[in-house]
Amino acid sequence: MTGEAIYQPGVWKTYHNASRSATYGFLAALPLLILYEFLIVFANRSAVAQVRVSSEMWLKQLLLVVGDYGLTAFGIAVLLAGIAVFWYDRKKKVPFNPRYFLWMFLESTVYAVVIAVIVSGVVYTILPALAQSGPAEGIAIKLALSVGAGLYEELLFRVLLVGALFWVLRWFMGDRVLAYIIAAVAGAFLFSLVHYIGPLGDAFRLNSFLFRMLFGLALNVLYLTRGFGIAAWTHALYDVMVMVVLDG
What we know:
It is globular and about 50 Å long. The chain starts with 8 loop residues before the first helix and ends with a helix. It has helices spanning about 10-20, 20-45, 55-65, 70-90, 100-125, 140-175, 175-195, 205-225, 230-245. Helix 2 (about 20-45) packs parallel to helix 9 and helix 6 (about 140-175) packs antiparallel against helix 7 (about 175-195). The chain has one domain. By secondary structure, it is mostly helical.
């Protein structure tokens, strides 16, 4: 593919199909995982108790239900899942091109900016009292939580929740498009709602609920149309942009 440009129709179609595959989603998520763990250790180096992303803790608590070996089983399951997606995509002859990861990063950056502008604009138009602010921690923990949210919230709410809803609805209704729509809307509603549940949940405000629901809906559309890798990086880059760069 030497000398080919991404804007050429054939190249874009190949990239589009490959980048939304499980293999590219799995590999694109690994840098987020490594960066998150490094930043968490660095940011919490002097803390008595580590601050971590809520969705990560929910997943780990769910795994602990099956016993002390739940987290070990999770690690093994992730490894086996990686092997499985490589084998499956190889049978489908999904091409491997390292340049695609750079293109995925650039594509995700564009989506993050566009989503920030559109969602904020819509919510501010409906409810002018919009006020979004990040946590009061230092920049290191903000950056860690931004990266972690991109990874773990997408894994929990997009892959597990929306993915499961889509397949169940498609099986019952047989209509792929309608299943996409219902799964995306229901998943976005639940994604927003969980931020206000529990002792550590935020105080309910209509503007923040609407913002999170529209943000979740945008990510659901990205996940269903562009795959896990694009959705995770878009979420992470958006959070970095808002929590670290804009909020300071």
